[in-house]
Amino acid sequence: MAAENNQSGPMEKVGHLASDIGEYIRQQRNNAKISLRQLAKLAGVSNPYLSQIERGVRKPSAEILQQIAKGLRISAEALYVQAGILDLPTGGPVPDAIRAATELTERQKQILLDVYESFRRENTAGNGDQPSPAQE
């Protein structure tokens, strides 16, 4: 079964991650209405290097990702997760919906996720089980 014998080596995975992070950076840059030249200047990298990152030719280091995140005014953690440097935070329908909301900024998403997680921790620590709908 040739179709099932689709083994991807480590280099293919790196290429895929580089492509994903580049696409994500380009999307965030376009959402912020910042030109490639402006972001390169804000992040302290050259135009060609940033272009290569966006096209998936180069995979940026964590330090470069941090500089790009600063230039985009988004959390570096969001870029680290996208680049595969950090594991994706725990999911579920609510966090997944928040992360998928294209109309929210990364900062707004992080605030909503923090609030949601604090409520979950509070409810778990409070009584050990899920709150009933009657509790207010």
From TrEMBL:
GO molecular function, one term: DNA-binding transcription factor activity
Keyword DNA damage part of the UniProt annotation: no
Highest taxon in the source lineage: Bacteria
PANTHER family for this protein: HTH-TYPE TRANSCRIPTIONAL REGULATOR, METHYLPHOSPHONATE SYNTHASE
Residue stretches making up the HTH cro/C1-type domain: 25-79
Record-given protein name: Transcriptional regulator
Keyword DNA-binding tagged: yes
Gene Ontology CC terms: cytosol
Keywords in alphabetical order: DNA-binding
Pfam families, per database record: HTH_3
Protein species of origin: Amycolatopsis taiwanensis
